Amino acid sequence: MITKNSIHTVNIDSINSSGFGVCRIDGIVCFVAGAVTGDELEIKIIKAKKNYTIGRIEKIISPSPKRQENDCTVFKKCGGCVYRHISYKVELEIKESTVRDALTRIGHIENINLKPIISADNFLRYRNKAQYPVKNENGKFSAGFFAARTHEIIPCEDCLLQPEIFSSVVKTICQWAEENNISSYDEKTNKGVLRHIYLRIAEETNEIMVTLVATQQRIKNQDELIEKLTKEFPQIKTIVLNINDKKTNVILGEECITLFGNGYITDVLCGTKIKISPLSFYQVNRRQAEKLYEKAKEYMGDIKNKNVLDLYCGTGTIGLCTARDAKKLIGVEIIEQAVNDAKENAKLNERENTEFICGDAEKAAEILRQKNIKVDIIVVDPPRKGLTENLIGTIADFGTEKVVYVSCDPATLARDCEIFKRHGFKVSEATPVDLFPRTAHVETVVSLVKLPPDDVINIELDLSELDR
Ligand code: SAH
User: Fold this and answer.
1) CA 103 / ligand 1 centre spacing (Å)
2) What does CATH list as the number for 129-269?
């Protein structure tokens, strides 16, 4: 048994999909944050379980050639990035093999046709969205990030994944909050006013949205802040107050009050105008999202005169960007504000052949199926937990020939691909896309095609029997 606080010399043999270096001590696996394949390290065990341990680097005895200088001051504390200490090339290799491993080991897909990962042109300052928790400690107001796996706020002036202008906006808000002695929300006591500063930028139009998440309907001297912000940053097109008075670690509440502007900003994605509201999902890396959607479009194939169903459609982005020439596009999304945005987006882009439904994807698909609505191509883009067996069954019942699965979690994607296989689909091709450089996340788009019935039967028939 390996004991807590014991010191070991180890060689790192791989990096897992969460970005931890992996080694073995007396046959027991040990995960080490910030370690790289090829490192020789002295580590201290900080967690010792029966079947795994977690180690912390005490000393780098011999660094791996894959290492590079970490370029962020809060890398070790912040839970955002896991790959600031390796080159982007090595990061891409890890992500590609994460997807390959998941599809082969979990999905049991043999001879997988996995295309090389689509890399980002820019692995710095690519995000268009940031949510900063705030704290007022003895009159000093700051905004930052939650430390990895905790709810402790680490102040951070600038994050290398965020546009520089976000830091300036945050600074102005913190200054105002300090001058006006605005209290910050305390999770333990459930008291205090300001919880988060939430910023979004529409990269193409340069419009910025500022959302203040607070526990009450009004913050004292908010008008002064609105004046200050809009004067200093003309790009700020809207300021919204989001009310969250619940004792929860969910960032946003359901109610939004527009304090300035229209309550939304507009971006352009694959030549399509997209309206973005505070509660709607919008991919955080616009340029990579375009590449992802282009790949999804390629997998959808010829869509002329076809009916396309876009499940988990958010603001309608995938369908609106890819199914321009389709006969009909039906989108399903559970968040009402996102559905309203999707409808607006359809109008904004003069797309009349569209219908957006607010509801649960599984239930909506079942109803569409019962009503015998003809669907030729189905696109799904679910949250991390993936699809349900029931929904996959309904998708198969539509009799569609093509399903395009966009996923942000290789493990649930692989699990679902195996279920699709049981329903007569084949994974014809998969492409990982790096939407989140420097973090452990990787997006994948998969082309699933329905096999003709003959190919599904896997009983070997001896045809010579027929001749007798
Ligand atoms: N396809 C969109 C959004 C993908 S994110 C895009 O690329 O921008 C996943 C979306 O699924 C979110 O908008 C989320 O609100 C929605 N969602 C989550 N659970 C859902 C459910 N049970 N039914 C329908 N939509 C759901």
Assistant:
1) 23
2) 2.40.50.1070
